[in-house]
Design a protein that fits this description.
Oligomer: single chain
Order of helices and strands: EHEHHEHEHEEEHEHEHEHEEHHEEH
Structural class: alpha/beta
Shape: globular
Helix content: 40-55%
Distance between the termini: 32 Å
Strand content: 15-25%
Mean pLDDT: 97
Bound molecules: nicotinamide-adenine-dinucleotide, 3-isopropylmalic acid, manganese (II) ion
Largest sheet: 10 strands, mixed
Length: 365
């Protein structure tokens, strides 16, 4: 058997609910495929703030760094919303991404045939959509300096942030995106605001330069306002989208809705070396937390990405993906993806159904 050390960071809100389900799925898929996981659960986000006073304790970052992969639920909640920046749950998440140097965030959005009816878009628009947002994760306006609060010449309070990109940060995310496109349909759309922002002008120049290394990939450029419109007009035009930190955050939430729900989208955050970070793209959903209503599939699919991109365990990853599709084939739906005629289940029951399918490869529909 192969052994891997996995750090689990359940976090806040629905985070612990979806992570406990995904952990069981990992365990089960592992045992079928001859993989043993050593799980270590560590506090993160609001939970860590309440326990230790900081959103990312150094023990948590150390555990994450020394493991083979990290699975995170979600962080944040009303309780900490008014906290000062250095003691916000969200700050802990940014410190974790920075600490693990995971600059490349892959966010796949595909419309599963089983969920076409769950999309808010018309069937003919949603059907067959299969795209990947490659989001730069450790730079841009999230990290740029100067930033902070101050007063202007009129003595009025101001808040300010800076969008900064260095060439090497653009070059490396561009290469990840070109490589990703090469393994898919060979199309890359770089999304920026190069008509206005200097950081985007450099972005477009560098991406165009890196494209010379990838003559087989068809590169296009699009302004972010147009891209957000094109995503709902004709999403099938996209294969891989590469964009900066903040545009990628926003466009991936928009793309999730094409697929039926934000509760479906997983992500993988990767660096040059060291463990990857795997998390659903959604947040802690405080409005449904503690009610066993959350869709765990985004986290289960993040566990599949952990196996594929983090550990190179392709077979176990595919076993989980197949189990998810089989569970949807059998009609099970959480509230966010429910349509007439489906079987409505909660987070725990959805997990149990996926486990059944993991065991038996496929349960009869
Ligand atoms: P959110 O993604 O938590 O929720 C948005 C909406 O989607 C809510 O109505 C929620 O119920 C629903 N939703 C989200 N995930 C779902 C799931 N798995 N199943 C069913 N429904 C789901 O975004 P928000 O409300 O803007 O943010 C809430 C908190 O989460 C904030 O504190 C925010 O900072 C934090 N957040 C954290 C992460 C993260 O940990 N990576 C990501 C986004 C937001
Ligand atoms: C996400 C979230 C985070 C982000 C927040 C919680 C810091 O929205 O993972 O998409 O903006 O990256
Ligand atoms: Mn987001």
């Amino acid at each position: 058997t192969r052994h891997y050390a996995i750090t689990l960071l359940p976090g806040d809100g629905i985070g612990p609910e979806v992570v406990s389900v995904a952990k069981k799925v990992l365990q089960r898929a592992g045992s079928v495929e001859g993989i043993h996981f050593d799980f270590q659960e560590m506090p993160m986000g609001g939970a860590a703030l309440d326990l230790t006073g900081v959103p990312l304790p150094k023990e948590t970052l150390e555990a994450a760094r020394s493991s083979d992969a990290v699975l995170l639920g979600a962080i944040g909640g009303y309780k900490w919303d008014k906290n000062e920046k250095h003691v916000k749950p969200e700050t802990g998440l940014l410190q974790l991404r920075e600490g693990l140097k995971v600059f490349a965030n892959l966010r796949p959005a595909s419309v599963l045939p089983q969920l076409v009816d769950a999309s808010t878009l018309k069937k003919e628009v949603a059907e067959g959509v299969d795209l990947m947002v490659v989001r730069e994760l450790t730079g841009g306006i999230y990290f740029g300096k100067p930033r902070g609060f101050s007063t202007n010449d009129n003595g009025e309070e101001i808040g300010f942030n800076t969008e900064v990109y260095a060439s090497h940060e653009i070059d490396r995310i561009a290469r990840v995106a070109f490589e990703t496109a090469r393994k898919r349909r060979g199309k890359l759309c770089s999304v920026d605001k190069a008509n206005v922002l200097e950081a985007s002008m450099l972005w477009r120049r560098r991406v165009t330069e890196i494209a010379l290394e990838y003559p087989d990939i068809e590169l296009t450029h699009m302004y972010v306002d147009n891209a957000s419109m094109q995503l709902v007009r004709f999403p099938k035009q996209f294969d891989v989208i590469v964009t900066n930190n903040i545009f990628g955050d926003i466009l991936s939430d928009e793309a999730s809705m094409i697929t039926g729900s934000i509760g479906m989208l997983p992500s993988a955050s990767l660096g040059e070396n060291g463990p990857g970070l795997f998390e659903p793209i959604h947040g802690s959903a405080p409005d449904i937390a503690g009610q066993d209503k959350a869709n765990p599939l985004a986290t289960i699919l993040s566990a599949a990405m952990l196996l594929k991109y983090g550990l190179g365990e392709q077979d176990a990853a595919e076993r989980i993906e197949t189990a998810v599709l089989n569970t949807l084939d059998r009609g099970f739906r959480t509230g966010d993806i429910y349509s007439d005629g489906n079987i409505m289940v909660g987070c725990t029951e959805m997990g149990e159904q996926v486990l059944r399918a993991v065991d038996s490869e496929a349960v009869a529909v």
